[in-house]
Amino acid sequence: MSKSRHQELREILLQHEEGLTASEIAKYANMKSDNVTQSIKTMPDVYIDRWTKPSKGVKYVPVYIAIKIPENCPAPYAKT
């Protein structure tokens, strides 16, 4: 099983407050953009901020943002 790179991706996004596409994140992390997209889908603190049209192609791509979760943020709990 490969090591999770969530923390690395999170740090990259937190350094770029304007957001990044998966391709841009992949360049910073030296990863394939498909792998970045798969990882981001499992990260609850990363979301799509907006969509942008790439310089090449016709399909809009998501621009991702990470939020900083407060240290004292309470964990969710199930109602009984």
Total helices: the number is 3
Biggest sheet statistics: 2 strands, antiparallel
Q: What structural class do you assign from the helix and strand content?
A: alpha+beta
Number of strands: 2
Helix-strand sequence: HHHEE
Radius of gyration: 14 Å
List low-confidence stretches.
Answer: none
Helix content: 25-40%
Topology:
Layout: H1 6-15, H2 22-29, H3 33-40, E1 46-52, E2 61-66
Antiparallel strand pairs: 1-2
Q: Can you give a write-up of this model?
A:
- Helix content is 32%, strand content 16%.
- With 80 residues, it is of the alpha+beta class.
- The chain has a two-stranded antiparallel sheet.
- The chain is globular and about 50 Å long.
- The model has no long low-confidence stretch (mean pLDDT 89).
Characteristics:
80 residues, alpha+beta, two-stranded antiparallel sheet, 3 helices
Brief sketch in words of this structure:
32% of the residues lie in helices and 16% in strands.
